[in-house]
Amino acid sequence: MTATPSRTGARVERLPLARFTTLGVGGEAEVWFVETHEQLQEAMEQPYRILGGGSNLVIADEGVPERVIRLSGPLAERDLTPDPHLSEDPWVVTGWVGGGVPLPGLIRQLQKLGLSGLEGTVGIPAQVGGAVWMNAGTRYGEMFDGLHTLEIVTPEGTRQVTPDDLNWGYRDSGIPRNHIVTRVRLKLRRAAPEEVLAKMDFADQARKGQPKMKTPGCAFKNPGGVSAGKLIDEAGLKGSRVGNALIAPEHANFIVNLGGATAADVHALLGLIRDRVPVPMELEYELWPAPVDA
Ligand SMILES: Cc1cc2nc3c(=O)[nH]c(=O)nc-3n(C[C@H](O)[C@H](O)[C@H](O)COP(=O)(O)OP(=O)(O)OC[C@H]3O[C@@H](n4cnc5c(N)ncnc54)[C@H](O)[C@@H]3O)c2cc1C
């Protein structure tokens, strides 16, 4: 199908979702590239999903029947100019940063500008909206360390909230599923760029053992503080392969796509891990569509 504009001018195209995910897996869906709030409201008139950087997703080979919304154009742009009314030394409150902005580039830009607060999230291949929705982070910092205001859109309308309005916590923003984080304003502290860079380098050290291939990140949460990777390794599963999906030899909690893997291959490996690891472990990935018993 070629791209057709919607009633309000959104580009709508039937596309393989694999190209939007870090795993490189996923069948087709109707993708809505929305650039304005008006287009977003139209996209939300039918069942929809919001897709960010696709860095936490395993999407079925059949794709999904719902509309898949991608924030584009102005909703993927950033204005990092300090707001003179809200900024008070050493704190800087920026203009709006679109939910569709890739997080890694933003973190590099903030470092160069000498703005500190989000550098602990270095290396997370998300979009700003997805990272905020999950409160993505590492032991060195998380998204809610640097938020001033969030704009959230639902089929009922648009509202602006502050972190204090939300029941956020560990890897959780408290924002319900399919409430779309369209834009945020950041609250950051002025610092020397070298100081921010040093923190980023330190946080990045923890990723040295992670595989460099296509992956949706860690497969399982650590059960009760025990390393999921260690448990999978101890079950003798490192290097196990189904089709073109592999349990990474570098780190057993990562499943990688060797090229041409299917969602079925990944699900088979997840099933193998569940069968062989004696401790129940909760999945870190989000599955599209969700399994019936989820
Ligand atoms: C190599 C690698 C390393 C990683 N390291 C980390 C890490 O250190 N820490 C960490 O926390 N995570 C990590 N992750 C996982 C992943 O990056 C995070 O979970 C991230 O928050 C997902 O964001 P995304 O934009 O890619 O969202 P997606 O994967 O596209 O979607 C995930 C969920 O967010 C929702 N969503 C997406 N955009 C929006 C939006 N604008 N508004 C509302 N909901 C939205 C989706 O509907 C979906 O429910 C890693 C992943 C990879 C591949």
UniProtKB/TrEMBL annotation:
<dbReference type="InterPro" id="IPR036318">
    <property type="entry name" value="FAD-bd_PCMH-like_sf"/>
</dbReference>
<dbReference type="InterPro" id="IPR016167">
    <property type="entry name" value="FAD-bd_PCMH_sub1"/>
</dbReference>
<dbReference type="InterPro" id="IPR006094">
    <property type="entry name" value="Oxid_FAD_bind_N"/>
</dbReference>
<dbReference type="Pfam" id="PF02873">
    <property type="entry name" value="MurB_C"/>
</dbReference>
<keyword id="KW-0560">Oxidoreductase</keyword>
<dbReference type="GO" id="GO:0005829">
    <property type="term" value="C:cytosol"/>
</dbReference>
<dbReference type="InterPro" id="IPR016166">
    <property type="entry name" value="FAD-bd_PCMH"/>
</dbReference>
<keyword id="KW-0133">Cell shape</keyword>
<dbReference type="InterPro" id="IPR011601">
    <property type="entry name" value="MurB_C"/>
</dbReference>
<keyword id="KW-0573">Peptidoglycan synthesis</keyword>
<keyword id="KW-0961">Cell wall biogenesis/degradation</keyword>
<keyword id="KW-0521">NADP</keyword>
<dbReference type="InterPro" id="IPR016169">
    <property type="entry name" value="FAD-bd_PCMH_sub2"/>
</dbReference>
<dbReference type="GO" id="GO:0071949">
    <property type="term" value="F:FAD binding"/>
</dbReference>
<comment type="pathway">
    <text>Cell wall biogenesis; peptidoglycan biosynthesis.</text>
</comment>
<dbReference type="GO" id="GO:0009252">
    <property type="term" value="P:peptidoglycan biosynthetic process"/>
</dbReference>
<comment type="function">
    <text>Cell wall formation.</text>
</comment>
<dbReference type="InterPro" id="IPR003170">
    <property type="entry name" value="MurB"/>
</dbReference>
<keyword id="KW-0963">Cytoplasm</keyword>
<dbReference type="GO" id="GO:0051301">
    <property type="term" value="P:cell division"/>
</dbReference>
<feature type="active site">
    <location>
        <position position="171"/>
    </location>
</feature>
<dbReference type="Pfam" id="PF01565">
    <property type="entry name" value="FAD_binding_4"/>
</dbReference>
<comment type="similarity">
    <text>Belongs to the MurB family.</text>
</comment>
<feature type="domain" description="FAD-binding PCMH-type">
    <location>
        <begin position="24"/>
        <end position="191"/>
    </location>
</feature>
<keyword id="KW-0131">Cell cycle</keyword>
<dbReference type="GO" id="GO:0008762">
    <property type="term" value="F:UDP-N-acetylmuramate dehydrogenase activity"/>
</dbReference>
<dbReference type="GO" id="GO:0071555">
    <property type="term" value="P:cell wall organization"/>
</dbReference>
<dbReference type="InterPro" id="IPR036635">
    <property type="entry name" value="MurB_C_sf"/>
</dbReference>
<protein>
    <recommendedName>
        <fullName>UDP-N-acetylenolpyruvoylglucosamine reductase</fullName>
        <ecNumber>1.3.1.98</ecNumber>
    </recommendedName>
</protein>
<feature type="active site" description="Proton donor">
    <location>
        <position position="218"/>
    </location>
</feature>
<keyword id="KW-0285">Flavoprotein</keyword>
<keyword id="KW-0274">FAD</keyword>
<dbReference type="GO" id="GO:0008360">
    <property type="term" value="P:regulation of cell shape"/>
</dbReference>
<keyword id="KW-0132">Cell division</keyword>
